[in-house]
Amino acid sequence: MSQSVAGTTATVPGASGRLIPPGWPGVQAASVIVLGRAILTTRLVVAFCYAVIALVDGGSPGRFAVPLGIIALVSAAEIAVLPHAVSGPARVLVVLVDSAVAMAIFLVWAGDPIHVVFQVGTAALAGALLGLYGSPLWVGQAVQAVITCWVLLENKIVPMGTTVALVAAPALIVAAGASALTLVQLKQDQLKRDLEPLVPVEEIYERVLRTLRPVSSVRPSAWTRRNGARPTLTQELARTLTRDLVVGVEQAQVPVRGVRFNAPAEEFADSLERMCREWEQDSGTILSTDLMPVWLRVIARHQLALIADDALSNVADHARSSHARVELAEGRHAVILVIKDVGRGFTVPADPAELRGGDYPGIVRMISRSSYIGADLTITTGPLEGTEIKVRMRA
To answer: Measured between alpha carbons, how far is 141 from 147 in angstroms, rounded to an integer?
Structure first.
């Protein structure tokens, strides 16, 4: 049986409640929060500007007051909720609510560009919060926009501005969803580069703050900085990410089976080889290795070593295997760590809650550590079939 289990938990053991989770999930959440807020704010501003232009052009105030009020209320509510909607189900709920409002505005104001403005924002929000999983939503909206355009323009003369909005709507919707998805990924990659432990902490914080700020908030005033006012959401996120990095580097100083993994000048493969030899000597189990030199950051080195140690401990304690094997390789844009044995194997519970119920502490720790560094952990096993633990982390 082969089952991918990464992502069933997003925090390391013992982590307390907080705005964003530690590690790579926190980087992902921070990117989603700041970009989602930027999308909602931009949609509100565009809707307001459109209403002002339409009023100047002779439109009726009553025609724009209701949709603009709805957009303002929905956007304000979602901006307030978004920092607390970092989990998958919460993000889905935000997108579903936004989509329901978009449908309501479409049904009432289908002949007005205001519904195009809202739907483009909805597509961008789905792309930012759900990634590729949100693509069916904005692709469906684009199809709906095509049908709407055809129905409204076939036998009806509409103003030039409305015609342009209706014709451009399908392309704008798809572009908004795809662009938001890409921007989140770019933001995450930039944050990963910013969180480099080889520079002073103050510089790390400033880098992270600069990366987050352009899409989420203006620079705090000198008065705010002097008087120690409550930090903005952007500052809080930057401080949290920086603090998590410092904690991760400190934890990486702790040896694993007497081997330290926090020396970037030493090949990770060499350190892992020494740890494997320590385990072989302690367990009495024959262990073969095939370890390719790879470049990894300090925190990732330490967490992968801990995953390997947990996997090898399970081999010694439960597998009843005569020998085991550890492999480390760098594939296409990924580092892959494999620990396998020829022991008795086991049945992986289908329910993640059962997996975390207390009978599989080693596996739970491996899942948590994999999630912490943004890796995918896959368990391939079965009764009397041995066990293979594979960790795949994007390089």
So the answer is: 10
